[in-house]
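[09:14] KT: can someone run the structure on this one? pasting the chain below
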Amino acid sequence: MPKIDILCLCQQYDLRAVFGPGFEAFDDLRLVTPDEVTDPASIRYVLAFRPAAGAFEDLPNVEMICSIGAGVDGLLRHPGLRDDMAVVRMINPQQAEMMAGFAAWYVVGHHREMHRYRALQAERNWQSPAAPRLPSQFPVAVLGYGKMGQAIGRALGAMGYPVTGWASRARSQDGVQVLSSEEGLAQALAQARAVIGVLPLTDATSGFFNAERFAMMRDDAILVQLGRGGHLVEDDLIAALNAGRPALAALDVTQVEPLPRDSVLWSHPKVMLTPHIASDSDGAAIARAVSDSIRAHRAGRQPEGLVDRQRGY
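[09:31] RB: done, structure tokens below
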């Protein structure tokens, strides 16, 4: 049985070197690099992450592009993306679980004021700075209630935190009230002690976290931004933190990555930074998802994670 070639396109690193071992379990699939392609017209499937601007120019017959990540905003803006190319984003429960654990770490840390104990430890002080508060008294808003948001909501709900979701469609999801509209957003932000951002990046959500939204938040809230760097107006955040609303910000994504060394975010006392590591997928999970997507596509079925180009996710 001939192998199906999957072309790796990424200008940042070698996708085959990173994910190739995961594909060894699939005898019908083969990852190839651009310099190995002798007949560009034969390429139907692509594995991509931040492909170069001209990456698709000599590939007339690409039918499906599989992203290695859950976010596809970069691919959808790619100048070479044609209307007949299906885009599939990564759907991986383990990746969502990693994201949920990362978000929960910040929620619990802020709720229990864990940062204060580091100072007490340095002082060799055994005193508690405050009486512990119950999780039920610490409401959380999860903005973006897709696969990632739902995993976060389930994890925090299991720990006793009241969770409210916000998304494009209002509904009840596994016992969580999911609000929509600007009115629903104002309600969610006004009550939350922790605001977790896992929105898709679209034209509608670009610059979402801005001065207007920060003014809606509590002055004792933490912003945990795990979505995309384009959601955040960084100057507005700095001004809001300096004014005391919100109280803290935890950023795993920034407008420019890597974050420039001269950015104020590095040294701001109310900002906690991580280098886009909230969640990830291993090679085996990527390979399974790509294999499932290709099988579905060849059978005439809709792959899981197929992106709605109009909605942007």
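[09:33] KT: thanks! The chain has two domains: 4-92+281-298, 94-273.
[09:34] RB: yep, looked fine to me
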